[in-house]
Design a protein that fits this description.
12 strands, three-stranded antiparallel sheet, alpha/beta, 21% strand, rod-shaped
């Protein structure tokens, strides 16, 4: 069924007059009549009872008019939804983020954005840095926050936040008095570290091997928050970017010292997207807010 034929049919059905429809569309009545006849042929039904008093719908015609009316309502609803999307009244943004961003930095941005655009839905996956490229390239995520992401042709670096690594420990720990801390000073020190899915762990293992030392592994976990709680109440030390322990540092439950070494001082949290993935209006808008926040974030001194 062709859309013009349905449009002509609906106008005749509502007015009961071929002549009225011809005036509305500025088309001769015979052309409209041919379109309706083609519809009747396609559907193998009679749509109108024709008489001197005009055109009256048959039962089949009434069913077709209901179909056309329903289609018009759906098109109107679609137009409204598209308007909602373009005006940020609706939409979904999917994020893949490392845990370091999930406790302070990202929640504050989500809260600020959602206050302005409450109709936007967020789906956030907290995952390891190694998983993030696959999430972006499979379109499971629109935007990612990764730790120390390597340069890749299929990913776009949108912003980079300096996050030089720190050693963290409980207040009063002997290492607090040593500023800054070099990796060689940690030979045999009992540590709590994230598991090997974390970019932080790979950086620490590489630095320890380069310094020729052995860290005494006392705790390995897949939760930075668990490690923070254990460090705050024990003599274990750990290694994290400042973004991870902002609240604990302010509360005085942990203290930190910067770590010496180029690999530590150049560590970063990166905002990424897939090069081939066209972002929705909602995702583009959130990306703009996210990258602005990343660029305005004061650099953490090492």
């Amino acid at each position: 069924m062709q859309l013009p034929a349905l449009t002509y049919f609906a106008e005749v059905a509502r007015s009961g007059s071929l002549r009225h429809a011809s005036e509305v569309f500025d088309i001769v009545p015979s052309a409209i009549s041919r379109q309706i006849a083609q519809l009747e042929s396609q559907l193998s039904v009679t749509l109108f009872e024709r008489s001197r008093r005009g055109m009256t719908l048959t039962e089949a015609g009434k069913l077709l008019l209901e179909f056309v009316d329903d289609g018009e309502r759906r098109i109107g609803a679609l137009g409204q939804r598209l308007d909602d999307l373009s005006a940020l009244r609706r939409g979904t943004v999917r994020l893949a983020v490392v845990e370091a961003t999930a406790h302070d930095f990202l929640p504050r941005i989500l809260e600020r954005f959602s206050a302005l655009h409450p109709g936007i839905e967020f789906r956030v996956s907290v995952c390891a840095t190694g998983e993030i490229p696959d999430r972006l390239l499979s379109h499971a995520a629109d935007i990612a926050l990764a730790f120390n992401s390597p340069s890749r042709d299929d990913l776009v670096l949108r912003a980079r936040m300096a996050q030089p690594m720190h050693l963290i420990c409980a207040p009063g720990h002997s290492l607090v008095r040593q500023l800054p801390v070099a990796m060689r000073q940690l030979d045999g020190v009992a540590v709590a570290v994230p598991d090997r899915s974390f970019g932080i762990r790979r950086l620490i293992d590489h630095a320890a091997a380069a310094a020729g030392i052995r860290l005494r592994l006392a705790l390995e976990a897949d939760s930075l928050q668990l490690i923070l709680k254990v460090v705050a109440s024990s003599d274990l030390v750990s290694f994290m970017p400042p973004m991870t322990f902002t609240r604990e540092l302010a509360a005085g439950t942990v203290v930190s010292q910067p770590l010496q070494g180029t690999a530590f001082t150049r560590a970063s949290i990166d905002v990424l997207t897939a090069r081939t993935h066209e972002l929705s209006h909602a995702a583009r808008s959130f990306l703009a807010v996210l990258t602005q926040a990343a660029r305005q974030r004061p650099p953490q001194k090492a």
